[in-house]
Amino acid sequence: MKAIIIGGGIGGLSAAIALKRCGIETEVYEAVKEIKPVGAAISIWPNGVKCLNWLGMKEPLQQLGGPMEYMAYKEFVHGQTLTRFSLDPLIKSVGERPYPVARAELQDMLIDTYGRADIRFGQRVARIEEFDGGVRAWFESGHVAEGDVLIAADGTHSVIRPYVLGHQTERRYAGYVNWNGLVEIDESIAPANQWTTFVGEGKRVSLMPVAGNRFYFFFDVPLDKGLAEDRTTVKADLTRYFAGWAQPVQKLISAINPDTTNRIEIHDIEPFMQLVRGRVALLGDSGHSTTPDIGQGGCAAMEDAVVLAMALQTNSLGVEDALLRYQEKRAYRVKDLVLKARKRCDVTHGKDMNVTHSWYEELKSETGERVLSGMRETILGGPLE
Ligand code: FAD
Prior knowledge:
By secondary structure, this protein is of the alpha/beta class. The protein is built from 12 helices and 18 strands.
């Protein structure tokens, strides 16, 4: 069997590695000549980590992950701790730890595991069609590829999604802007072994350790879409939005490098239950586009890859049947993740400030139990024990 994989991001490469591991021939096509991930880092939660372990990347992943042992929320004016707890009970109950990692390093690990020379960079798919017994993809370069199955891992702006769904989808603006980047660890801003989040006014400022003595930082601010702001104004913008916030937040704003700080208007797509059509499967953000509020978009793409490989490996009823089994296993899971993230997004970003204030109050009495039990439920919904 031969699989054509469109997209060389987290989803496409996880799928390519998974299928190769199951003895399926793969061809990966990536539109750009050099992948520049839209974001500085990503937290891989234990459900995603288990998938990468299954794909043979356990040791390299451990090298990339930051030592995130604790989690803390702080109020925004004085930086006083609202709650702080160990992640250990979570790790013990799900059997793996989370790893915050720099995106470029994650991308390199996936590329090296699959084989850099085997990825066809600079090949943008224009359209696809199925024929009796196979599927064909046309590229803007004029190249044509044929396979038994096609995996569309071409991201949130997928050109293949309308073929599968039979209609176009709209991206929904989630109501906030996220700035993110990497900065050298400074323990006067936050402890080096902790995921620290300052909350107030429906905004947040968060820091997570990644390998190499760096913090992954992000700032979220509820804002209108389409403002005239970019990297050139980032320090002034953040200084304005976070005026009156605690000293560590001011220090972080001074420390960041505007040239490597990303500004992203956060979107998702209303979940849909159809992930496959015939011999074509959506995987990763093409099939489920979520806000990053529970850090599960990339992890879900890794889960998709594992489930897809398992389904295709046991395909005695044919490719179409295997894809339907993939859809059956994934559609509810990914819908649940998108909707959970949306709910979390609204509470965090002050969609109704009364609800957001109640959450700030709740954090004062949080022992870790409620937060960790929500995370545990999400993590244990993944495909691997
Ligand atoms: P993409 O990463 O978008 O990759 C798609 C690839 O397909 C790209 O390389 C693109 O060039 C290529 N492509 C597109 N069109 C074509 C075409 N026509 N032909 C050929 N190739 C094409 N997830 C987590 O798990 N944890 C987190 O902490 C987390 N934090 C996030 C923070 C932010 C601010 C954002 C925006 C997202 C976050 N996510 C997180 C989500 C995660 O980044 C995505 O879910 C993940 O990158 C999706 O991977 P993908 O491979 O499906 O899509």
